[in-house]
Design a protein that fits this description.
By secondary structure, the chain is of the alpha/beta class. The protein has a domain of 170 residues: FAD/NAD(P)-binding domain, CATH 3.50.50.60. It has 19 helices and 16 strands. Strand 1, helix 1 and strand 2 form a beta-alpha-beta unit. The mean pLDDT is 96.
């Protein structure tokens, strides 16, 4: 039997491990933390009985992942749950831009902009499964669906602020701005529309669901699948040097490029070391978890029903905040993401006390206290929320890096989404997973297709490892 070692048990590391184990490899996953999961762990953070996702929380790309579809995760306990409203973006007027899984319902809700919304997202949403087969692979491949990919590319290459000119109302423009802001990148730069377009299309195909029982349930299912094929996960096993690793035929690293440089040391070719050293990090996340009596009292009724709420005001306000954060300035009104997973998964609550997940975009490595800025932004659209808060748990940008070593400076996207890194992360190479060290591959979110709990970085890296092994067996 051939042996594989995977360092890191985030969703990508586990996806790589499962893909190799399915093909007969004996797989050992080494995890530095005391539990598996990376950015997809869940825990009681505020009050007993309230279940919070520690990082990743809402899963349009997880539900739509081609690899996850092939695994039958449902057999091992993964159940997707949807709120009544997938996403809402409130404005000071009391109105909100609202995304529903149904494209037609969303278009009707956007009134004057409904037809334009349908025109922009109709084809990508209808063809999302075919589109995902190309979007979730490295850029250097022969497209399976070139027409769909070209149609997507026409929108994705634009600045988000440019694509937003398709709509006239503040509601539609703000709705797209909030989705595009998931890129942690200035919205007036080229290619900043890409992630917003992909997530909107995924939302209209699969909605923005949560995993019942917490994001940890996705990890638990992957660990169970790995065990089913004879693989093991060893927690509390940090890897500092190449010498710390057991012998193997292939090695996959679910790690930031800087960690790959540290572990592989002089074995890493100089050109790859330079590329990994130059790899750019993005802004940070400042996380605030809340225990809220009766839920957040949003002024807008759709926000009270929404699993995800984007808090940032108009497109112009969101764009300004994202520009400032990228430049290293903490905005007075940061862009804040709020998840109310309990609306789709009531077991996360304790009676009428509910777990609320939030984080703000902050500058890379921001060491200040952004808690008040987060609460002010929420209170702006939900007066009286402070009186309902019974518990708080805060994790700053530096603390995010201590929670997960891949999140350098709080960068939960594992790299800046610049135009180059959006399509050519972590370096310019025909095989972006190959490290240049024979048999060693990078499989983290620093590789294509990038961040998200979809496992495709790990799956793609496993395919590269399998091709290498077939040539050298």
């Amino acid at each position: 039997m051939s042996d594989a070692v995977v360092v890191g048990s985030g969703p990508n590391g586990l996806a790589a491990a499962v893909a190799l184990a399915q093909r007969g490899f004996g797989v050992t996953v080494l995890e530095a933390a005391d539990e598996a999961g990376g950015g997809a762990r869940s825990a009681e953070l505020t009050l007993p009985g309230l279940l919070h996702d520690q990082c990743s929380a809402v899963h349009p790309t997880g539900c739509g992942s081609p690899f996850f579809h092939s695994l039958g995760l449902e057999r091992h306990g993964v159940a997707w749950s949807w709120p009544e409203v997938d996403l809402a973006h409130p404005l000071d007027s009391g109105s909100a831009g609202v995304l529903r899984r149904s494209l037609e319902d969303t278009a009707r809700g956007l009134g004057v902009d409904g037809r334009a919304w349908r025109a922009v997202f109709g084809r990508p949403a209808a063809g999302f499964d075919a589109l995902a087969e190309d979007l979730f692979r490295p850029v250097a491949h022969l497209p399976k669906h070139p027409v769909q990919l070209a149609n997507f590319g026409m929108r994705a290459l634009l600045p988000a602020t440019g694509l937003a000119r398709a709509w006239r109302s503040d509601e539609a423009r703000a709705l797209f701005a909030g989705i595009a802001a998931h890129a942690f990148y200035p919205l007036n730069r080229p290619v900043s529309a890409a992630i917003g377009t992909m997530l909107t299309a995924a939302g209209h195909r699969y909605g923005w669901p949560v995993a019942r029982g917490g994001s940890q349930s996705i990890v638990d299912a992957l660990v169970a699948l790995l065990a089913e094929h004879g693989g093991v996960v060893e927690t509390g096993r940090p890897v500092h040097r190449y010498a710390d690793l057991p012998p193997s035929d292939v090695l996959l690293l679910d790690l930031d490029p800087a960690a790959a440089v540290r572990i592989l040391g002089p074995q890493l070719p100089a050109r790859v070391r330079r590329a990994y050293t130059r790899y750019r990090r993005g802004p940070g996340a400042y996380k605030v978890d809340l225990a809220v009596q009766g839920g957040i009292p949003w002024r807008n009724e759709d926000c009270r029903k929404a699993g995800t709420v984007h808090v940032g005001g108009t497109l112009e306000e969101v764009a300004r905040a994202e520009r400032d954060v990228y430049r290293g300035t903490m905005p007075e009104r940061p862009f804040v993401l709020v998840a109310q997973q309990y609306l789709a998964d009531p077991q996360r609550s304790s009676g009428d006390v509910h777990p609320v997940w939030t984080y703000a975009h902050v500058p890379h490595g921001y060491e200040g206290d952004a808690t008040e800025a987060v609460l002010r932004q929420i209170e702006r659209f939900a007066p009286g929320v402070r009186e309902r808060i019974l518990g708080t748990f805060v994790r700053s940008a530096p603390e995010m890096a201590r929670y997960n070593a891949n999140y350098i400076g709080g960068d939960i996207a594992t790299g800046a989404n610049t135009p180059v890194q959006s399509v050519l992360r972590p370096r310019v190479a025909v095989d972006p997973y190959a490290t240049g060290v024979p048999g060693v591959f990078l499989c983290s979110a620093a590789t294509p297709p990038g961040p998200g709990v979809h496992g495709m970085c790990g799956y793609n890296a496993a395919l590269s490892a399998l091709r290498y092994h077939a040539r050298h067996a």
